[in-house]
Amino acid sequence: SLPFFLICPYSFIVDTTRQHAASPFRLAIGSYVEQYSNVVSIIHKNPNSDDPTNSLYKAAEFDHPYPCTKLGWSPDLAPGAPDLLATTGDYLRLWSVSRETDAAGRSQVKKEAVLNNNKTSEYCAPLTSFDWNEADPTILGTCSIDTTCTIWDVTTQSPKTQLIAHDREVFDLAFSRGRDVFASVGADGSVRMFDLRSLEHSTIIYESPSLDPLLRIEWNKQDPNYLATFMLESKKTVILDIRVPSIAVAELGGHFGCVNSVAWAPHSSCHICTAADDSQALIWDLSTMQKRPVEEPILAYNANGAINNLQWSSSQPDWISIGYDDKLQILRV
User: Fold this and answer.
1) pLDDT tens, residue by residue, 260-300
2) Largest CA distance in the chain
3) Backbone angles phi, psi at 161, to 5 degrees
4) Angstrom distance (rounded) from CA 221 to CA 224
């Protein structure tokens, strides 16, 4: 079937949502314009339309200072839990988004908090990424160019702890399945693993060959032995097994441009999607990687521009959203 399609007046990053009965198909996208004034848009699908070109519409839009480095919905699905969207940039911000829409299909958005852990300076160290803790949605971790990671209590809107995580800038962090373990990557080329129960120690589980910066880290939530990462300006995605530190268990080639985004399948332990500057989104089957190299993807999609971001929907695992240029596409797997 044809992908759903939306054109925006800006380049953007994208994040999908978990499913609620009142809004079963919803995304958040953030503009990426190199200036102070940016926006975040909430995108809905018209339930009465399957026209690929006009079934997606903007249900809400609000101003955001500077581009978002990441945005993501709270994984809290408890009845009555607030529908929170987090964004990072200069600070961590929390927004509540109404699940109900008005007669025109529009949602209401309210800013709940602007969180800053640097109380001693009027200047902030920009945040590069964050991750919600799915096992305990009151916990959210952010990372920063100032070498630190901060673990926040979303309920009290206060930091639980802050730690110096790397020798240089931290570019991403991700929680494992469960409450306590997370990993981070950064400009020092290392993947480091932490445990909230004993933060005085960390484990370096991988270093890139020439200590090239590692940009993103994705944890396999179906099989938490596996992580995926990639280096700055690299055409390969590195698969790590935390039981075998220091070496990559697999390297996924296949791209002719730099990798920009990776996402594990939310419903399968052995499938992962990679996207790159070569306009391709590739899905890989890793079920045989312990026996032989994974050389070819099982599915490939060619977009009409360099793909800067992708998300594999945990609430609707048949769908992958990609962003390129000023376009959002939702692909059926």
Assistant:
1) 999 999 999 999 999 999 999 999 999 999 889 999 999 99
2) 56
3) -165, 155
4) 5
CA–CA distance, 275 with 132 (Å, rounded to integer): 22
pLDDT for residue 101: 82
Token pair of 219, please?
Answer: 């944890």
Question: 311 pLDDT exceeds 70?
Answer: yes
Cα–Cα distances (Å) from 58 to 7, 44, 45, 332, in that order, read 11, 6, 9, 21
Token pair recorded at residue 181: 């373990």
| DSSP string over 246-297 | TSEEEEE---SS-EEEEEE-TT-TTEEEEEETTSEEEEEE-TTTTTS---S-
Residue bearing tokens 């390969």: 236
DSSP β-ladder status, 92-97 and 109-115? antiparallel
Instruction: Please report, for residues 16, 89, 178, the alpha-carbon distance to residue 223 in angstroms, rounded to integers and kept in the order given.
Output: 21, 30, 11
- Sequence-separated (6 or more) residues with CB below 8 Å from residue 141: 130, 131, 133, 149, 150, 151, 152, 173, 175, 182
DSSP element (H, E) containing 27: strand 26-31
CA-CA distance, 36 to 40, in Å (whole number)? 13
pTM: 0.93
The torsion of the CA quartet 264, 265, 271, 274, rounded to 10 degrees, works out to -50
Alpha-carbon distances of 315 from 20, 141, 225, 297, rounded to whole Å = 9, 22, 23, 24
pLDDT at 97 over 90: yes
Calculate ∠ Cα 64-86-24, nearest 5°. Answer: 105
* Distance in angstroms (rounded) separating the CA atoms of residues 6 and 8: 7
